[in-house]
Amino acid sequence: MSQHFPVLIVLLPLSAALLSPFFSFMYRQAGKWIAVAALAGSFLCSVGLLLQVTAGGGQAIHYYMGNWAPPLGIEFVVDPINAVIVAMITFLAMCTAIYSTPFLKKSNWLYMGGYYTLMALLCVGLSGMTLTGDVFNLYVYLEIASLSGYGLIALGGNKGTLAAFRYLLIGTIGASLYLLAIGFMYSMTGSLNMADLSVLLQDKMDYPLMIMVIGLLIAAFGIKAALFPFHGWQPDSYTYSHPGAAPLISGAMSKVPAYAMLRFFFYLFGAQHLFVQHGLTVIGILGALGIILGSVMAIAQDDFRRMLAYSSVAQIGYIAVGLAIGSMYGLIGAILHIINHAFMKGSLFMAIGGVQYRFGEFRISQLGQLNKKMPFTVFTICVAALGMIGIPPAGGFFSKIYIMQGAMETGQYIYIAVLVISSLLNAVYFFRVMENIFVNPDAGLKEINPTAGKLELPLQMLIPIVLFGIIILALGFCNASVVDCIIKLGLPEVFLG
Fold first, then answer.
1. Pair 348, 308: CB distance under 8 Å
2. What is the DSSP letter of 250?
3. Crossing angle, helix 30-55 and helix 5-26, to 10 degrees?
4. Do residues 23 and 46 make contact, with C-beta atoms less than 8 angstroms apart?
5. Segments making up each domain of the chain, as ranges
6. Which of 68, 163, 328, 391 has the smallest count of CB within 10 Å of its CB?
7. How much is the pLDDT for 328?
8. How far is it, in rounded angstroms, from Cα 444 to Cα 456?
9. Where are the strands (E) in 52-132, listed by range?
């Protein structure tokens, strides 16, 4: 059974997506539990894969669909890095599916079944993008993730529908650019398999056509990851998406394209080539600009969700800078920040979603004395804020330290300055949040969904919120183990410096 874990990670939520509407029609809650069970199974399979690949000393696991070897067949490739990322995706999806349930308590069977279908399909797309060993199938999974993301954003209401349409237009451009890039690569090599491409492209890296390929990939993944200046779709999408789905959308959707950039530039192309180096330089410049712009724009927001959206532009910039640095420490920092930011941003959207569920409020200026009303939620906000600013022991501190160490090692001191400035700006807007929560007078919020007993939120919401806060701290305390036991095992295959 364990040999089929790679395909089960995708197959289980795909089956749930097909079955959820049918079972919801029979019994409204059944579709939800089908989806949650499938996502839980997918998470357990991903943990099993992670244990297998680390126990094997980092040796990649290859799974051939239908036992057809590439390039004729389709394969999944599991290494320590994408194993931990897919475990992160499936865990986020499982927790978000559970967290979402109170938002859907008044929904009819069609809405609920459709919601969990989209949630499961988003997990399918993101997991498939992470595991696939074929560049065309990455496009297929990219579209699955995008289409389900459009749907979940549209479920946020009228503004959500408009944001989804905007994302649809921009996202379609990004997908088309990616398709053009792989078309050019196929014309040069006659293969779509990543392992084959990594060999066949080596004597073609000085072709002028590779400049176009690299540019197209930067634009395509830049759009999907919301890298500056391709981030225009993100603020509205994050702000107006369905509040139950926002943790998964914000936590994972932009991280997988960022990982795809790492995979292409270091696995397929090789960072030692001149054109790739120039491409990484461009990514670094865009990332640095995004760090500053995103942080400045976040300061100006009163809508907590919109503040988080702009902060995500900055945080993606950190990952881009880590990739651009290109040293081992830079790559460690980038990968670690993908994981840390997924939980930090997911937890913050869960927290503000909880406030929105209970009080119908999401403005920072209206959070006065929230610590007395929702202490557990505020605990997670504080922990996540520490990580976003880069204050120990939260995990975000250590990923930033690795990026800075990589920049110092390579003499790229401008990135250190950008990260320091950004951390100060992060402190400004998060301390403003803390001031409103702890210092400002009670805003007199009226409950729209009163909770029973002394619980501040239903347990389905409260447990994931607190759990994510604990995970952020755990990633800080255990960062050395994550780096040594997982990330470094995967780096020798891609690190060429």
1. yes
2. I
3. 170
4. no
5. 2-493
6. 68
7. 84
8. 16
9. 61-64, 75-78
| DSSP-H helix ranges across 190-254 | 194-200, 208-225, 234-240, 246-248
Burial status of residue 410 (CB atoms within 10 A of its CB: 0-12, 13-18, 19 or more): middle
* Contact in structure between 231 and 120 (CB atoms under 8 Å): no
Q: How many CB atoms lie within 10 A of CB 274?
A: 10
Residue type at position 129:
M
Using an 8 Å Cβ cutoff, are 284 and 415 in contact?
A: yes
Residue 179 C-alpha from the chain's centroid: 22
Please give the single-letter amino acid code of residue 318: Y
Q: What is the pTM of this model?
A: 0.92
Collapsing DSSP to helix, strand or coil, 363 comes out as: strand
Contacts of 469 (CB under 8 A, 6+ apart): 347, 379, 380, 383, 384
In whole angstroms, give the CA distance from residue 417 to residue 35.
45
* CA 336/CA 342 separation, integer angstroms: 10
In the beta sheet, which residues pair with residue 456?
Answer: none
Residue among 325, 321, 152 nearest 253 (CA): 152
Q: Which two tokens stand for residue 319?
A: 């990952």
Q: Supply the angle between the helices 459-477 and 395-410 in degrees, to the nearest 10.
A: 40
- Closest CA relative to residue 345, chosen from 430, 233, 250, 474: 250
pLDDT of residue 497: 44
How many residues would you count in the chain?
497
Residues 20, 122: Cα–Cα separation, whole Å: 14
Other beta carbons within 10 Å of 489: 21
* pLDDT at residue 292, rounded to an integer: 92
Angle at CA of residue 88, ends 198 and 382, nearest 5°: 130
CA–CA dist 337, 9 (Å, integer): 23
Residue 450: partners with Cβ closer than 8 Å, 6 or more residues away: 358
Cβ atoms of 287 and 320 closer than 8 Å: yes
Cβ-contact 194, 134 below 8 angstroms: yes
- Find the distance separating the first CA and the last CA of the chain, reported in whole Å: 38
Question: Could you tell me the mean pLDDT of each successive run of 10 residues in the chain, 497 residues long?
Answer: 81 90 83 90 92 82 76 81 92 93 84 89 93 90 92 88 90 92 88 84 82 91 90 88 89 89 86 84 92 90 90 91 87 89 92 89 85 89 89 85 89 89 89 87 80 77 92 87 77 52
